[in-house]
Amino acid sequence: MICSIAGELVSVGETSIVVRPQGGLSYELMVPAYAIPTLVAQIGQQVRLETRSYIESQAQGAVLIPRLVGFLSSDEKAFFELFTTVKGLGARRALRALALPPVEVATAIAERDHRALQELPEIGKRLAETIIVDLADKVTRFTWVAPSTAVEGKPARRSAAAIEAAAALVALGQNPADAERLVDRALASAKANGRELATPDAIITSALQAR
Fold first, then answer.
1. Per the CB 3.0–4.6 Å rule, which of 104, 128, 166, 196 could disulfide with 179?
2. Which pTM was predicted?
3. Helix (H) or strand (E) holding 161
4. pLDDT tier at 68 (50, 70, 90 boundaries)?
């Protein structure tokens, strides 16, 4: 089983990417929708992705196609594996549904936020209910909590700018946990000094300066 892959990111499509490791072979990997913007910015660069393999059935099972799915981190891979344990969420459907990073989806699940889940592609009312019933007590490790804003143990949602900044820091070589800590520290410092970091670039600059 292929657990990870490293090489040049050759191309990025709507639902998949092509990675060329040393040796000449190129691999197509399906990727979650939320990862596409991050990966587009890395075309032509060396990347490393965690992977998961599965067999896709087509033509009512007459055709079986081996597929690789790529993830930006091991935590994102682990969330996908948990997410696809829900009945009705096959790999393809789950990849399309994950239009937001796992931390956002996991937080919506933990908060039993049906409306937020139904705003995701492929997720209707009934499936949202099933996801919450099956996973609400299992996703805590994937939620994102900002210590300065958490109230009564309830996870605080990460802003879009903070999500993008953390993803960019991961792309620059930080592991996901360190990236989140750097973002936390930058936002907390700015708040303490009466400043607002409203854009990903501002958060990244502040986070890197504070290392």
1. 166
2. 0.68
3. helix 160-171
4. very high
